[in-house]
Design goal:
Elements lengths: L2 H5 L11 H29 L8 H26 L2 H26 L3 H33 L5 H29 L9 H22 L17 H5 L1
């Protein structure tokens, strides 16, 4: 055990109704909701482009999952080396920024349709990276927030919230896509209102919720970063 590990208490003392755990659940709910709204919105918008109908589903899946493979070891390192609460908040701030970039990409799509589509899927890639970094901090924070005898229940609640938010997000993605008007050559504010308002608002709510998680001590302040080549391969 390193000195950095000895400095960390790492044991949660709260219950399932503690402020930190409820905030974590709400943060996860909004995060999962936004992931699915954005992903399905992008897929459905891509399918409106004739030349991308056959590949848009695969492209969306690839852009969202590759970051998990590339960042698996690094996300675990960050979650242990730094405060999980700070990592969660940083990920939520990044989510708001990525959504703003995605809205900008949608606006460009009104001028150059293909450029806009590719930039939106680049934002999907960034969202995948954000989700990959968020995962270990999210799950790793549970034992640091709740008492040991409540961890199983806490994990179950987390899974329930994730599943419900994912299903709702898929439905909402269809609704938002149907209400969006991103016609080429007509990048109007009205056409962007629904996707921009929905995506940025959900991300912002998740960010605000994360601020209510109480400070958590880093698991190991002396942990060294992993080798990017050997850990990924």
């Amino acid at each position: 055990m390193t000195a950095g590990q000895m400095e960390s208490s790492g044991q949660g003392t709260g219950g399932l109704r503690s402020r930190s755990f409820i905030a974590l659940l709400v943060t996860q709910g909004f995060g999962s909701l936004n992931d699915n709204v954005f992903r399905w919105f992008c897929v459905l918008q891509g399918m409106k482009v004739e030349s991308m109908k056959a590949s848009t589903m695969s492209l969306g899946l690839i852009c969202f999952t590759i970051p998990y493979l590339l960042l698996a070891s690094h996300s675990a390192y960050v979650a242990d080396r730094f405060s999980k609460r700070k990592t969660i908040v940083a990920c939520k701030i990044a989510e708001v920024i990525i959504m703003a970039l995605a809205v900008g990409a949608m606006a460009l799509g009104g001028v150059d349709e293909m450029l806009g589509i590719y930039l939106v899927f680049a934002a999907v890639f960034l969202m995948g990276a954000q989700s990959a970094m968020f995962g270990p901090a999210k799950f790793g924070s549970i034992p640091e927030i709740v008492r040991s005898e409540k961890i199983s229940e806490a994990n179950g609640l987390m899974q329930m919230v994730t599943t419900a938010a994912s299903a709702l997000g898929m439905f909402a993605g269809f609704v938002v896509s149907s209400m969006a008007d991103l016609s080429p050559g007509d990048p109007t504010i009205a056409g962007l209102m629904w996707p921009a308002g929905s995506l940025i608002s959900i991300a912002a709510l998740g960010m605000v919720a994360s601020l209510f998680i109480e400070p958590l001590t880093p698991a190991d302040t002396e942990l060294r970063p992993p080798n990017p080549l050997t850990e990924t391969v």
